[in-house]
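step 3/5: co-fold with DWN
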Amino acid sequence: MGLDRHDAQPSSCRICASPVVEIVDFGSQPVSNGFLRPEDAGSESYFRLAAGVCEGCAMVQLLEEVPRDTMFHEGYPYRSSESSVMVKHFEQFARRLMETELTGADDLVVDIGSNDGILLAPMAEAGVRHLGVDASQGAVAASREKGVRARVDFFDEDTAQDIARAEGPARVIFSANTFSHIAYLDSVMAGIDTLLADDGVFVFEDRYLGDIIANTAFDQIYDEHFYLFGVHSVSAMVRRYGFELVDAERIAVHGGAVRYWVARPGARRPTAGLAELVAEESERGLVDPSSLTGFGQQVEKVCADFVGLLDRLREEGRSVAGYGATSKSATIINYCGLGPSYIRYISDTTKEKQGRLTPGGHIPVAPRECFSDPYPEYAVLFAWNHADEILAKEKEFRENGGRWIVYVPEVRVI
Ligand code: DWN
Ligand code: SAH
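step 4/5: write tokens
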């Protein structure tokens, strides 16, 4: 452990080509969703996981890009609907879009990163013209079972032209926890320009840089999260590609996120809420690269406390399991050098992950039934962003004397 210091060549911003100042370096890390069969252990691809902030546009971004088809492919295991809270979150937003933006009989909505149809399923049910676009065949198959129209593809300029030819302009283009996963935003934004109706809106939501920094939620830094968006950096980015940020809403999902509303210049009036968030970011120093250079020290303290606790529990012979085989857990498990000798298994409800080993740390992923048969003494809550949902669902664990270990914003036993 100990943040690696690389004397790598200074990086330049993927968006504006200005110099990028490194803020954290986790060294060599595996692909975060590379849950592998036991027989494949050892044949994993690694990359340098480091993040920096652009001196020109304040965009926080990875310093090394993992090829998109290494991360997203037929077997991509993440399924959005494993969280009932997220199902409700997207159902509510789908209704809001249907009431406010998709009021025309033939209005089209396109969802980039549609996964298992978590947003489009209610729209399909309501008869709204829609199209999902997702790079992972398995996820698309799950969405089609819900009656969602979706295509297996990476959204970029070429895909957008194909969709525009076949479907016509989109009134709404939506994307959740995907836009920040795409390094080639120039091509994606050119695609948005091709596909979006003149008075249409591009709405996307992603975890928020402000919350990641405030809560030392460093495990949100991993291969899929190429960008960590802030309001200021998103506003500069969309302007560069000929659009205007007109609203930004803080939303309480995934540990803190922001929903961004983007339109063609002059098409919609920027809201007061947007101006407030921009001002708040400036006051918090989120726009100033020098304010982020201390993040690495915060990370080191959390990791030292986390490993210290797990070392003590292991010496005492305590039983420790994990809960939620999240993508983000790859960063903390591998950066802290954890494996089955610390965490016996990780419980997860996702069929596609069960029976597999976590990338790098090779901790077995077990079905939820194992968690209460018998309960471990301690459970590391890797899915901390779903804490309310999980602690309510698993209240019997605590009632039986079990204790949760959390590490965001700091290491605690609850
Ligand atoms: O940004 C991303 C988000 C949207 O989803 C993607 N890059 C990939 C993925 O990230 P993640 O894996 O960190 O997401 P979650 O939603 O924090 O993953 C939760 C995991 O925990 C899933 O594997 C499902 C599992 N789970 C469970 O076993 N029991 C979740 C809940 C709510 C539960 O009760
Ligand atoms: N929107 C869902 C899923 C987010 S996970 C949610 O918020 O829960 C990210 C998804 O984006 C994955 O299903 C992945 O396959 C998909 N993806 C990644 N890059 C993509 C691209 N360029 N075009 C379309 N889908 C992409």
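step 5/5: annotate
Residues 295-315 form the longest helix (21 residues).
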